Amino acid sequence: xxxxxxxxxxxxxxxxxxxxxxxxxxxxxxxxxxxxxxxxxxxxxxxxxxxxxxxxxxxxxxxxxxxxxxxxxxxxxxxxxxxxxxxxxxxxxxxxxxxxxxxxxxxxxxxxxxxxxxxxxxxxxxxxxxxxxxxxxxxxxxxxxxxxxxxxxxxxxxxxxxxxxxxxxxxxxxxxxxxxxxxxxxxxxxxxxxxxxxxxxxxxxxxxxxxxxxxxxxxxxxxxxxxxxxxxxxxxxxxxxxxxxxxxxxxxxxxxxxxxxxxxxxxxxxxxxxxxxxxxxxxxxxxxxxxxxxxxxxxxxxxxxxxxxxxxxxxxxxxxxxxxxxxxxxxxxxxxxxxxxxxxxxxxxxxxxxxxxxxxxxxxxxxxxxxxxxxxxxxxxxxxxxxxxxxxxxxxxxxxxxxxxxxxxxxxxxxxxxxxxxxxxxxxxxxxx
Length: 433
Ligand SMILES: Cc1cc2nc3c(=O)[nH]c(=O)nc-3n(C[C@H](O)[C@H](O)[C@H](O)COP(=O)(O)OP(=O)(O)OC[C@H]3O[C@@H](n4cnc5c(N)ncnc54)[C@H](O)[C@@H]3O)c2cc1C
Hints:
By secondary structure, this protein is α/β, with parallel strands linked by helices.
């Protein structure tokens, strides 16, 4: 006999957690399974054998939703307030090419080739029209290609009304180049790492009685609404919130061929932990973006400036995101070696390294390619007909609505849609929030 539940949640990342919180509020029956040994998914944190704590990529929380704020509050997690201090490292030669963000604010005069009202077909058009050819060539094109691992004429531009490739809102060059500098913003960061928030929500808001870690769903039989687990057990459900990749769900719907029309980037996350103080070029900074292909990473995050506990007393740590291009994949050792030599160029002393941490994330960014929404709509129609909501970062595959707060809300929304027929605006219309 299969185990029975009203809601099966696949994945205890932010999306699955949001669904579980909503179901708990409503007093509904659910089970949440995750193949990992911890909650938080891509927003979890890991402490290595040397005692350095690593996130799986630089994470900044910008909440747009009171429901998310309430979960943070109820979790009881302590939040540091970190002052944003981002820089662009234009050329990976030395600290002299570090430029503060937003880079468009560093222009001394407006470019003469701006075409803000011209139609844009893809991301390359959008950046050229909005920022001019010089900034496009020196920063936006090389940086975005590095981050998306995809030529920009294959990438849609409509998500940019919400944020740029680094999580910040885009500010048009026209208002910035000559305007006043924006005030330094602060953002909250959980003490203990990004994952500490999700652990605390599971400990203090949900409890862990309905959570099964190290439990993988191998297959969903859509017709009978039954999940088959890797350990041979089966769970029958009325509704399923699935937060694994939608490309996997396409196997369940018989639409595998559509997966070729979606793209995800692969990212090596390389952490370097050192004794002593950071060099001048990195002290006090929150992150660096690097468009130079001679440097392996596109973004480096000074984790010990987010929370000193990420490194421990008398130490510091930095986390670098290294893309792997499908045509010429980067090996882990090249990612680590290249990262260390780039840090040396910024003044770090390799003899003080105490930890080299690495994780390959096969799916890092869901690329907003042209035609993506058409594919998503087709698969969604099939899944919804069988009570399955594929949501979240790769479950929903919509970059513009899959940061932690949006993901959490997508999970809540899926529950409200299943039970009350509510619209899923966070998933389909994140620009409304
Ligand atoms: C490099 C990087 C940078 C980021 N930067 C930010 C940022 O600055 N700010 C921000 O708010 N967010 C950021 N994020 C996004 C943040 O991590 C996501 O919001 C979040 O992880 C999405 O949550 P999710 O639950 O949808 O998916 P995931 O986190 O991917 O969780 C899905 C879970 O499902 C489990 N799972 C999958 N398939 C199965 C299966 N078959 N059986 C059982 N379990 C399964 C997985 O183990 C995983 O735990 C970043 C992410 C990355 C990768």
